[in-house]
């Protein structure tokens, strides 16, 4: 499916395992997964991107990725059963330091539990619209009640997607997250930079455009939070 790249081995690095998850489609999971993988790779981490979505959007994006850019190992895993397969050992090269998993919409509960169990961080992209927020509330509440999150040292956070800070829906999302004490890590701008990057198989941090600088800082900030275990939480 997606082409397999040769990766540089990383020594002495703790593997970080990041799961991008939301039961609703169209919320930006692939945008988050691909740009997060790009940020890790550009910071010098040996990175793998595992695609569990049957639409193979992440894998197709990696097939377009120019060979001169930092390497991201591509794993098309949608044909594997997440209930029985240890996702983090599924063809992931030895020495991989960062693993990002892109998941499909309507992931069944057993598969979600398996993936959450093996993750260090769970990121939930949510579009700040009334419809998407209403769909996200029961999903997040269900996650919070899961023993996989409740009884484990895992981080869960929400990323706002295509959000405008002064909008009513944005404020509603922020209020909801404050109620459950869930970090709101960043708010991805509604910009064509993400569309352009996706079409070229690159991340927004690789566009080299002045207009992309605010987007680049979002990803730097997000990675700092993941790396530093809450010590530098980004502001939305």
Keywords:
236 residues; single chain; seven-stranded parallel β-sheet; Rossmann fold; disordered N terminus; 17% strand; 8 helices
Question: What is the rounded distance between the termini?
Answer: 36 Å
Residue-averaged pLDDT: 81
Unreliable stretches? 1-11, 230-236
- Share of β-strand residues: 15-25%
Kindly identify the CATH topology: Rossmann fold
Give the topology string: H per helix, E per strand: EHEHEEHEHHEHEHH
Radius of gyration: 17 Å
CATH class term: Alpha Beta
How are strands sequenced across the largest beta sheet? 3-2-4-1-5-6-7
What does this structure look like?
By secondary structure, the chain is α/β, with parallel strands linked by helices. The chain has one domain (16-228): Rossmann fold (3-Layer(aba) Sandwich). Helix content is 37%, strand content 17%. A seven-stranded parallel β-sheet has the order 3-2-4-1-5-6-7, with helices on both faces. Helix 1 crosses helix 8. The radius of gyration is 17 Å and the shape is globular. Mean pLDDT is 81; it is low at 1-11 and 230-236.
